[in-house]
Amino acid sequence: xxxSQDVDAISLSFSGFGVDExxxxxxxxxxxxxxxxSFRKGCEFFSNDDDRHFEKWNTDHMAVLKREFSRFKNAVxxxxxxxxxxxxxxxxxxxxxETRSYDIIIEIACTRSSEELLxxxxxxxxxxxxxxxxxxxxxxxxSKRNLFVALVSAYRYEGSxxxxxxxxSEAKMLCKAIKNAKTQNPIENEEVVRILSTRSKLHLKAIFxxxxxxxxxxxxxxxxxxxxxxKAVQCLxxxxxxxxxxxxxxxxxxxDEKTKVALTRVVATRxxxxxxxxxxxxxxxxxxxxxxxxxxxxxxxxxxxxxxxxERAA
Amino acid sequence: MATLVxxxxxxxxxxxxxxxxxxxxxxxxxxxTIISVLGHRNAYQRKLIRQAYEELFQxxxxxxxxxxxxxxxxxxxxxxxxDPADRDAVLANVALKSTxxxxxxxxxxxxxxxxxxxxxxxxxxxxxxxxxxxxxxxxxxxxDLRKLLFALTSTYKYDGKEINKxxxxxxxxxLHELIKEEAFSHEEVIRILGTRSKAQLVATFNCFKDQxxxxxxxxxxxxxxxxxxxxxxxxxxxxxxxQKYFAKVLRNAINKLGTDEEALTRVIVTRAEKDLKDxxxxxxxxxxxxxxxxxxxxTSGNYQALLLTLLGSEDH
Lengths: 314, 316
Known about the structure:
The complex is a heterodimer of chains A (314) and B (316).
Chain A: H1 3-14, H2 21-26, H3 33-42, E1 46-47, E2 56-57, H4 59-80, H5 83-96, H6 102-111, H7 114-128, H8 132-139, H9 144-152, H10 164-179, H11 190-198, H12 201-215, H13 219-222, H14 228-237, H15 239-251, H16 257-270, H17 275-286, H18 290-297, H19 300-312
Antiparallel strand pairs in A: 1-2
Helix pairs in contact in A: 4-16, 4-19, 5-6, 5-7, 5-8, 6-14, 8-9, 9-11, 10-12, 14-15, 15-16, 15-17, 18-19
Chain B: H1 13-24, H2 31-38, H3 43-57, H4 61-68, H5 71-81, H6 84-97, H7 103-112, H8 115-129, H9 133-140, H10 143-154, H11 165-180, H12 187-195, H13 198-212, H14 216-219, H15 227-240, H16 242-255, H17 261-271, H18 276-287, H19 291-298, H20 301-310
Helix pairs in contact in B: 1-2, 1-3, 2-20, 4-5, 5-17, 5-20, 6-7, 6-8, 6-9, 7-15, 9-10, 10-12, 11-13, 15-16, 16-17, 16-18
């Protein structure tokens, strides 16, 4: 094989989502010192501007490499861990790491069943000697705090009984709160927080239906784009559409790490639940199947693992 | 310690069910038998009796009792015979349905129980009322009181003994500052009371006492009619010294002109299998009268007999 082709293959295997272990083993393992030197001289991963003129691996790229090699490991760990421990650890990380991602807290609080969320809260006790609501309350401040604490504390009724009269009147309350959005941010409206964090998911579906009939648009269309409230409503009304959006963003080219890491999370946490519907939503939204997009964008064992997890749901 | 007296050798649940059946059927009801059987059975035994009664006679024993008994006695027996978690769910629902919800009861349930006991109450509430306890608490209360009650009932606190001394000292200071400014319903107060574990809060309240030379409950003062302040005091008492709190509830229930049977029944029925003995001792210490004596003076008939039995009184 021509060296330049090999170089291209190796560069590709080192860049992007996951690492193409096969190419690395077959190609890189065969290179002699001169070939490796050629690679270092010509490749962007290395810099040659050191005073002593040796071809140094860029520290940034080292970090990227470390991350990409870990992607498969992280996927395996997340998949194997008990879902409760997994959700508890995700929540803790979302609160304290530098790249604060409170969205994950909303995701966990709103898309898990009542017993799953409870389990995660129990796991949190065991792992961190605090309750999840303690930590959320002390880390999230400002107007978001009440909503977040209320959402993680929820232990919703999961039966089928819904009081339609109450649903109608609560939809009206939400309409009013949205109309007054200029005077009071809906996230600070106690009634909005109460309704979203205590009512059962079926009851909420009824409310959202009535809201659309009364106000013309769906509730999440009326909420500020990207706001925590909008995300909470999306997660509560249609989790699969929400997850499909998250996946689309993570697979777009140029996505940052914070967005990319969602791919592993969504696949590992939903493969056994509603992946089938998520795949359908993805196809609708993007015109390509999720498997195809993952096939194009990711590499190596990471890719194979994800594709297997997604296919289980077929 | 419990005051419930359960004999070592008991008839089997089936035998008990038959005895109770005889006590209920026919003209009139043999309340004494009902008291002497049910008053000496613990929660598990009572459950078995209900099941045995249902299997033997295809009737719900509780419904049978409701139709045979009346008045304060009936209310007390009904509460006594339910499963503890179910009982609290019923009490909570009753408290919430009244025009001015009885927040005392809700705070007792939220703060005195362990997190897992509170969870059992919530599950029982689902079963009975097809809604969550938090939903109803949130929709039936308003304003600051809602914030506090909702925070206390929806939480699933850490149950262990681990505490952070520095955090306790810090949060005691925070509470002191806010209390000084009379910002009692401040977010931070609610955050601390609503999320920190019992062990952590006890440590915090101890730090408060060390720092300020006054207990936190005594420092929450203001308008005596302010319901929120009262709720705050109830919460701190229930967290810090629940038996003393219950002894006080009993004192208030008995001292009144006329007796507050609702409160009297509630405390005796819910604590008989837990710490009613300690509560009795505190009651005596404070009033120099034994609780048995006070109850005997203030109540009568079958109601009195049941309460005295649950109190472990000697001739009952």
